[in-house]
Amino acid sequence: MRSFTISETRDKSLLARFFASDQTLYVYLLGDLDPFFFENTSWHIARKNAQTDSPIEASLLNYHAFSTPVIIGLEENDAQAALWKEALSAPPARAHIHYRKVHEHIITGAGDIHPIGSHFRMAWNPDLAQTSADDIDHEHDNDNEETDLEEVVTLSPGDIGSIRELHKCAYDGAYFDERLLETGLCFGVFREKQLVAFSGCHVYSKEYDVAALGAIATHPQFRNQGLGAKVCLRALKELQKAVGCICLNVHSENHAAIKIYKHLGFQIHCEYEETILIGGTSN
Fold first, then answer.
1. Is pLDDT at 115 greater than 90 in this prediction?
2. CB proximity list for 108: less than 8 A, separation 6 or greater
3. Which CATH number is 126-264's, of 3.30.2320.30, 3.40.50.1000, 3.40.50.300, 3.40.630.30?
4. What pLDDT digit, counting tens, does each position of 42-85 carry?
5. Domain 5-119+273-279 classification at class level
6. Predicted confidence (pLDDT) per residue in 130-150, tens digit
7. Which of 20, 107, 108, 224 is most buried, by CB atoms within 10 Å?
């Protein structure tokens, strides 16, 4: 493998120009350039040579707002491999890694891994949507009759207890930056004061024209009623007023969710891997 020049950078303009080549692939990285997230990030880039005008070949983001940092590197080239080798030469005690399959041998060689699995990055195209906020097809186990949906409400920081409770029973281990409740872009459905459906954001940036839905969950007892679709549609309706690129991630084996997202107008853009890496040990 050829050698690359690896350096740390805080140059947002430099990074944004590189990420603009594939806005969907880099939606999280673009979002994390926003001042709301940027203070919790560190960035490394790989170039073919040390010249500052040499093009970036790959990047690596370390997002350390959570107790378990999230490290993301999504190119499939040798430059990305060089970045992974450099970053994991002294692996962190624990990290949530997003990577491409071609570099799995580097990740597994850095410590004990606890695979989360393959994921699809999906991008929203409203022209492909088969439903709207005013017209949802409800799929039920026993019939095809439509039922009334509860009103979708905007959630605030005061609802964090209800969100945590829902995630505990429906999506344990969900990553959610609770500060995003301040944006007014998180939505839910309550039944008898219990939150039973939720759609949040992982990243949101008007400046960089991107958003990613995340931490989406429906209580197991209230699934197959269209509630998940309803909260997502409300989020899409609001987000499209502000940004042009809206994405989400979904486990490649979550066929039910993928079907819903395609129905809403999302399409698969790429596949990547997620794992929890426990560093400091050898396989």
1. yes
2. 283
3. 3.40.630.30
4. 999 999 987 777 899 999 999 999 999 999 999 999 999 999 99
5. alpha beta
6. 876 555 434 333 333 333 444
7. 107
